[in-house]
Backbone:
């Protein structure tokens, strides 16, 4: 009933999605997280997502949109428009989402549930075009090499899965709930791949636009929510170190696996 390529694409994206859960369960590697640990990890996560938004989303999207457009100005318009729409959407979501009141009697710095979820929504949204890309890669093999794409996405899902778990633990979720949420969010990728496989006639043009939008979304959350929060701790050098460590690690992964 389904072609071999279809089954391959679904299985590959399912595998990549499940790896997100592996990252999520890595939250159990350490028994207890102090406020400073969480701060460090959030910064690390910010660096990971900064790199992911540039090198896994914004740059490849720019190249693809330029290829598709007859004119560089048209390409620029579509590309910047998509990034802007991404930022606008998450900004709107940020204003619509209720501001919670800290009535649980917690003391000290407390990464709010709203911030955690905004970050997670942005990560979740960017997994859709990533999944789409996998589907498209399988259905039109000249678009991208599906094997290296899947491996790249799968491996970069590890730090992303951990990122999801970290932000939930920072918002006082239990480790198990955090890890399971991250596994669940990983499943957005096979859904994206399914859409990509079913709509391959036009989705190769949608993917780069979705990637550009997702890049803008992630950047907004990192710049507007994560960094101001962690830099509030005043230990800016330590924070910067963590951001750069995450950034360089993810950039290395993206570069090596993109080959
Ligand atoms: Zn990603």
Residues:
């Amino acid at each position: 009933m389904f072609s071999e390529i279809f089954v391959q694409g679904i299985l590959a994206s399912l595998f990549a999605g499940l790896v997100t859960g592996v990252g999520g369960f890595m939250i159990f590697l350490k028994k207890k997280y102090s406020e400073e640990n969480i701060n460090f990890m959030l910064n690390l996560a910010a660096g990971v997502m900064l790199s992911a938004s540039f090198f896994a989303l914004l740059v490849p999207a720019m190249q693809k949109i330029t290829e598709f457009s007859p004119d560089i100005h048209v390409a620029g318009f579509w590309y910047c428009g998509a990034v802007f729409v991404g930022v606008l959407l998450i900004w709107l979501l940020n204003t619509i989402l209720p501001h919670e009141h800290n009535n649980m009697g917690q003391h000290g710095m407390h990464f709010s549930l709203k911030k955690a979820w905004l970050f997670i929504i942005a990560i979740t949204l960017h997994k859709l075009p990533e999944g789409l890309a996998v589907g498209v890669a399988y259905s039109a093999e000249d678009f991208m090499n599906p094997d290296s794409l899947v491996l790249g996405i799968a491996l970069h899902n590890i730090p992303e899965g951990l990122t999801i778990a970290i932000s939930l633990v920072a918002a006082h979720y239990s480790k198990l709930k955090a890890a399971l949420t991250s596994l669940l969010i990983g499943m957005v990728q096979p859904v994206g791949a399914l859409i990509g496989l079913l709509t391959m006639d036009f989705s190769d043009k949608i993917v780069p636009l979705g990637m550009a939008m997702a890049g803008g979304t992630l950047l907004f959350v990192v710049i507007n929510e994560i960094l101001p929060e962690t830099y509030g701790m005043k230990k800016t050098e330590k924070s910067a170190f963590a951001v750069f460590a995450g950034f360089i690690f993810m950039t290395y992964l993206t570069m090596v696996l993109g080959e």
In short: Residues 35-68 form the longest helix (34 residues). The two ends are 33 Å apart (CA to CA). Residues 52, 56, 126, 130, 156, 160 surround zinc ion (CB under 6 Å). Confidence is low (pLDDT under 50) at residues 101-109.
